[in-house]
Amino acid sequence: MRVVFAGTPEFAATALQALLARGFEVPLVLTQPDRPAGRGMKLQASPVKQLALQHGIPVSQPRSLRLDGKFADEAALARDTLLAAQADVMVVAAYGLILPQWTLDLPTRGCLNIHASLLPRWRGAAPIHRAIEAGDAQTGITLMQMDAGLDTGDMLLTERVDIDAADTTASLHDRLAALGGRMIVDALDLAARDGLRPVVQPAEGVSYAHKIDKAEALIDWTQDAAQIERRLRAFDPFPGGLSHLEGEAIKIWRAEAVPGSGRPGCVLSVDEQGPVVACGQQAVRLTELQRAGGKRLRVSAFLQARPIVVGAMFEPAALAAA
């Protein structure tokens, strides 16, 4: 089976590696254009492109696949490249571009998407983040037959994963990426034997996992402690939590909900386990912090360099953003 692969980040690279390890023929990879990254802001290839080049696979990087759009010439060239690849199926994982109908119709068996959610729970760009933020007990991988809608296609295979109390987006991402790689090779084996049975998504329970915005890092201390703790785990590794203490921007990476009450943002106590900060309901103990330009530190090391005193105020998100 000839498999064209479309994907960009590490999540997608894990799936591509699984396809190659199983021996599927991959004549072409689609991925996002190289982006500036790092302190020098040099152009950097996506993890998927890097893996494809290591295996000698041709790579196409159009800025759009719309034949009537701003980058129509690039889309037309990508179409010619896809036609020449003569794919039986396209596997899509976190590609980052909308696939127009001509793309969906091109492969013999259509386009299969690896989606990191139990559809239709979290459609959209950030399903892992939003599942943790919402306090979901489970998430998983859904393999979907793509259609023109946003994650609305028929479901082909689904597998559940528990969300642990300590899971961050980083840790859950890695488990789901590995699961997605295993499931897609199994699905293609089933497809070769006509063993996949599409199931229409339920109309109930639809949520949209909107893309993470950097501004969401600002902590609203009037929220309850459990909600703040979940958001910190959801926003690790990006964008983290951010608040201002005595005019200094402090990144907050880890916290735990603890008993306590007081003015939201006020430091209630400080010991070697970390400062306790009042929230709208209960409090949080901060356990991993970072100063501007510094490294992420466990709270004991952080407090040696930057003491925090009882009564100090972490500024509310609205004030910090002003």
UniProtKB/TrEMBL annotation:
Q: Formyl transferase N-terminal domain location, by residue?
A: 1-188
Note the PROSITE patterns from the entry.
GART
Top-level taxon of the source organism? Bacteria
> Recorded E.C. number(s)?
2.1.2.9
- Coiled coil located at which positions? none
Q: Which residues form the Formyl transferase C-terminal domain?
A: 211-305
Q: What InterPro entries does the record point to?
A: Fmt, Formyl_trans_C, Formyl_transf_N, Formyl_transf_N_sf, Formyl_transferase-like_C_sf, GART_AS, Met-tRNA-FMT_C, Met-tRNA-FMT_N
- Catalysed reaction per UniProt? L-methionyl-tRNA(fMet) + (6R)-10-formyltetrahydrofolate = N-formyl-L-methionyl-tRNA(fMet) + (6S)-5,6,7,8-tetrahydrofolate + H(+)
Q: Which SUPFAM superfamilies match?
A: FMT C-terminal domain-like (SSF50486), Formyltransferase (SSF53328)
Instruction: Specify whether Amino-acid biosynthesis is a keyword of the entry.
Output: no
Q: Mind listing the GO molecular function terms for this protein?
A: methionyl-tRNA formyltransferase activity
Outline what the protein does.
Attaches a formyl group to the free amino group of methionyl-tRNA(fMet). The formyl group appears to play a dual role in the initiator identity of N-formylmethionyl-tRNA by promoting its recognition by IF2 and preventing the misappropriation of this tRNA by the elongation apparatus.
Task: Read off the PANTHER family from this record.
Answer: METHIONYL-TRNA FORMYLTRANSFERASE, METHIONYL-TRNA FORMYLTRANSFERASE, MITOCHONDRIAL
Protein name (record): Methionyl-tRNA formyltransferase
Please state the gene responsible for encoding this protein: fmt
